[in-house]
Design a protein that fits this description.
Blueprint lengths: L1 H16 L4 H17 L3 H11 L2 H7 L4 H15 L1 H25 L2 H17 L4 H7 L16 H8 L13
Helix pairs in contact: 1-2, 1-4, 3-5, 4-5, 5-6, 6-7, 6-8, 7-9
Length: 173
C-alpha cells in the first residue's frame, strides 16, 4: 500500500504541476500490479479513496496508513454492497443537482457546466451497472424523475435534467 500511495501521489502531483508524468505512471502501473496480487481490487478502492481525499495518498506514502486503510475498507464496502452504492449514488446526485442549481443562480457557468457534466457521467455509468440501475429504478423521485418515459434510468436522468450524455441524433444536419 505504501508503494502504491507514493506512486499515486507522485503521478497525481506531477499531473497538476504540468510535469510529464510518464515515469510516475510507469511506477504507478507497477505498484498497481503488486497491490492487485496482494488484494484484488485493492488499488482501485485505494484510488477511489485518494480521489475523495488527496491527503490520504501522501499520508499512506509516508507510512501513516491508518486513515487510508479505513478509507480503503469503506470503498471496498461501497463497491461490494449494492444498497450502499445506491445510497451513495442518490446522495451524490442530489449534491450535484444542488450545486448545479447554486452555480447557475450565481452565474458561475463554468462550475455549472462542470457539475452537469459530472451528472452526465453518472447517468452514463448506469449503463454499465444494470444491478445498480434496477435498484435505483424504485428511487426515481429521489433523483428528480417525476414522469416515466420508458427509457433506461440513465437516459431518463439525462432527459429529465437536460443533460447531454453524448448520443447525437445522427441526422447529419
Amino acid at each position: 500500500m505504501k508503494r502504491h500511495a507514493r506512486a499515486y501521489d507522485a503521478a497525481f502531483g506531477a499531473e497538476h504541476v504540468g510535469i510529464a508524468a510518464d515515469i510516475h505512471m510507469r511506477e504507478l502501473d507497477d505498484a498497481r500490479d503488486a497491490f492487485e496480487k496482494l488484494r484484488p481490487y485493492g488499488w482501485r478502492d485505494a484510488e477511489a479513496a485518494y480521489a475523495k481525499d488527496h491527503s490520504l495518498a501522501a499520508e499512506a506514502g509516508a507510512g501513516r496508513a491508518n486513515r487510508a486503510i479505513r478509507a480503503l475498507q469503506l470503498e471496498t464496502e461501497l463497491r461490494t454492497n449494492i444498497d450502499q452504492r445506491a445510497d451513495e449514488f442518490v446522495r451524490r446526485w442530489q449534491g450535484l443537482e444542488a450545486a448545479s442549481q447554486h452555480h447557475y443562480e450565481r452565474g458561475d457557468m463554468t462550475a455549472y457546466r462542470a457539475s452537469r457534466s459530472a451528472m452526465g457521467d453518472m447517468a452514463k455509468a448506469l449503463q454499465r451497472d444494470p444491478q445498480l440501475e434496477s435498484l435505483l429504478a424504485v428511487r426515481k423521485a429521489e433523483l428528480g424523475i417525476t414522469v416515466a418515459t420508458g427509457r433506461s434510468l440513465g437516459a431518463e436522468l439525462a432527459f429529465n435534467h437536460g443533460i447531454d450524455i453524448g448520443r447525437g441524433l445522427g441526422i447529419g444536419l
